Amino acid sequence: MITLYTQHQIRTVQSLDSLWQYYFPTEGMTVSPQADLSQLNERKLQVPGVWESLPEYANYRGQALAVKKITLTKDAPLRIVFAGVSHTAQVYIDGELLGRHHNAYTGFAFDIPRAKAGEHELRVHISNEHGEGSALHVPNDYYNYGGISRQAHLHLLAQPIYIENLHLTPGVDENPRKVSAKAFVKNLNRDSVTATLSISVCGQTKEAQLTAPGNGTSETELIFELPGADLWEPENPALYEFHARLLMNGEEVVDDLIERTGLRTVAVKGEQVMLNGKPIKIAGFNRHEDHPDFGCAIPVAMMVKDIELMLAMGANSVRTSHYPNDRRFLDLCDEYGLLVWEENHARGLRDEKFKHPLLQEQCMQCNEEMVTQHYNHPSIILWAIMNECMSDSEEGRILYKEQLDQLRSLDQSRPLTYATFRLREDLCQDLPDICSWNLYPNWYIHQPPAEALDVIQEYNEPKGMKGKPLILSEFGAGALYGYHDPIRRGKWSEERQCDLLKELFEDFTASSRVMGLYVWQFCDVRVDESWAMSRPRTMNNKGIVDEYRRPKLAFSLVKKYFDAFLSSP
Asked: Please, are residues 406 and 360 in contact by the beta-carbon 8 Å criterion?
């Protein structure tokens, strides 16, 4: 969708990141897409941004209209791209509905085969409401913000045919330097179109003829061998750009797309995860996209700071709990060599929430968009689904299997997992490639960490976990920044957090069975008001840094144990 590097040298791209006019309801007025704007409360808001950054709307859950005037200098095919709107959007141009999208954490786009020159009004009707239309955005242990929370762009196309995606898959014939480059060309014409696809990388250029069906998409694959290229590894995150061009009549370049990737393979071998054929250990943090000043619309400078802080604590990985992350953050992970566990958007949905009639449909849409949009990031080594949902039921097993099968059909180059806390009751351990467990001994359950780990193995090795890698995907304890109690070491003190983390690390790193650790969590984050009774400050306070990224006492303790774990045989 929208990246930190240049993706187009031929196609004209215009950023919509600027101040937009936002309109909120007044007494007796609703915010319909066709509303009379003069009857609504008008505010200015930066895109990307969330309306909770406006003092008057800091706790607003409802609907709003985001409005922007755009000007086209000539008639042209137009593509309108949103990297993320939180959480349900209806997009209109000059009063005409272009389409709808649900989910704050994946991008979407709409095409206009021939847009007229002149001024146009773009309206985005936005809702961050919790209601029957959303199975995924519910009151939760993080906050659902409202607004155009990620970037937005206009793409002016030279012809009503363009390169929609370029998927790069290293590891053809198990050789990381042999890459499949598969281009998806979309045709907005009613009739089929013949064109030439050209792809270049590292001084090599290959071409192929294609025919894109009317109002359809063609797929064309070219194979590249790059014998002199460096492999992508955390210590040397080498990246290579693939330049795709679309030519008409054999010579007129009508569109282009630049995608980059790293040359690496990821595989599971017994109880180990292999990167480029070598076993790796994983040590990192669960991270929410959240900041008191920006909500989920994190600016790039803050993303960089987050990564630098995680690396300073010895981490080599991050888990995008519990949704696909901003592609610019993933670009940074590619550049820094930070391994990524990325997962779909479904957290803690149980009982009636899990039985929502739209759950599977919305999860599978999120899966498809996540994989399609983030396919080329070499930092992503795992796809995951449905954190702490109902993997302990036969009904849940059907949904887990269907989603894991879907991910395998979308991408066979990465292993799959899901995180569960059903120590004795989980029924799905045979389904993923890697088994992952969320454990909070001595915080939520009064049980020594080593004993909890023994229970996992006793009950789940016979149910499909045996012989697979084991990751402890969440563990931790809460602390309020600045609250010290060095004598009594009471709950919520920074000293108590250190005590509990020390015990967790000692027991978990002593197990030869554990190959991955993710601390819950990187930073303190805002939660839904319904969680406030168990969350002081209406925050999940288990961060190793607070919401402003100020380190707690546990900062140096985590580094000590991460360093030891990653350096152990």
From this structure: no
Cα(46)–Cα(66) distance, integer angstroms: 10
- What would the two tokens of residue 195 be? 């064109």
Inter-residue contact 342 to 394 (CB < 8 Å): no
Q: Is 538 helix (H, G, I), strand (E, B) or coil?
A: helix
181 shares its domain with 289: no
At CA 406, angle to CA 402 and CA 410, rounded to 5? 175
Q: CA 473, CA 446: separation in Å to the nearest integer?
A: 19
Going by C-alpha positions, the residue among 151, 114, 122, 133 that lies closest to residue 33 is 122
Structural contact between residues 22 and 40, judged by C-beta atoms closer than 8 angstroms: no
Record the pTM. Answer: 0.97
Tens digit of pLDDT for each residue in 475-524?
999 999 999 999 999 999 999 999 999 999 999 999 999 999 999 999 99
Chain segment 545-563, per-residue pLDDT in tens: 999 999 999 999 999 999 9
Domain count of the chain? 3
DSSP states along 362-389: HHHHHHHHHHHHHTT-TTEEEEEE-BTS
Angle (CA) 299-143-498 rounded to 5° is 85
Rg (CA), the chain: 24
Residues 33 and 129 in one domain: yes
| 94 phi-psi bin (left φ>0, alpha ψ -120 to 50, beta other) | left
Backbone angles phi, psi at 498, to 5 degrees: -60, -45
* Cα distances (Å, whole numbers) of residue 247 to 7, 201, 270: 17, 17, 47
Backbone conformation region of residue 249, classed left if phi is above 0, alpha if psi is from -120 to 50, else beta: left
Residues in the chain: 569
Q: What is the CATH number of the domain that holds 430?
A: 3.20.20.80
